[in-house]
Specification:
The protein is mostly helical. It is built from 3 helices and no strands. The termini are far apart.
């Protein structure tokens, strides 16, 4: 049985992006920074948005955009 490596790695990438999205949604960007030691949670969220735009998953992009806006507001008040 032959395995289509391109398809296999695209599936791995999709699973990673979905996991990253779930992590951000559950913990927020501030949680990602504090609890997981991320130095650039906004950059990560932007990379996820770029990926989801490519696959027209705009609902996820809207959630990520809102998380970025909330994070930026929190950072400005500190």
């Amino acid at each position: 049985m032959k395995v289509d490596l391109k398809e296999f790695f695209e599936e791995v990438r999709k699973n990673a992006m979905d996991s990253g999205y779930d992590l951000l949604k559950a913990n927020g960007l501030e949680g990602l920074e504090k609890d997981f030691g991320s130095n650039d949670p906004v950059g990560l969220a932007n990379k996820l948005m770029t990926y989801f735009i490519k696959y027209e998953e705009y609902e996820k992009c809207a959630v990520l955009k809102k998380l970025i806006e909330e994070y930026n507001k929190t950072c400005q008040t500190k």
